[in-house]
Amino acid sequence: MLKKFKFNAMNHTARQTSTRTLADLIRAMDSKWATTVTYIKADGEESVRTIEIHDIRTTAKGRIIIRAMCRKRGEMRTFYPEQIVSYTIHRIRFVLDAPQSETYFTHAAETEAEFIALEMDRDYPELKSLALAA
What we know:
By secondary structure, this protein is an alpha+beta fold. It is built from three helices and six strands.
């Protein structure tokens, strides 16, 4: 049974599955809701940022990354789910314009086949080139 989603509730990632965390963050991205995250920076210091998530993707090596506009810096930043300690999803909508070079909402596929095609095209662009050449 799915837990009811609550706005402005502090969600601690250690108290839930990573699937639950990602589902909440994808919902925030799809709905264009601002999200405040507490995360551990590379130097071990804890930081709090309000972000606008524009993409959640996997790298070629299989690591999940979150691409988001940081309201404090006014820039697109990369966040790693395993470094997020807690998060709060707000009813506040996006207010920052992301750079045109960013990929938007890659998980917004209508069917399972479209989703797989999007993931394959992003992770293996050379396969698309080979298919077009044939």
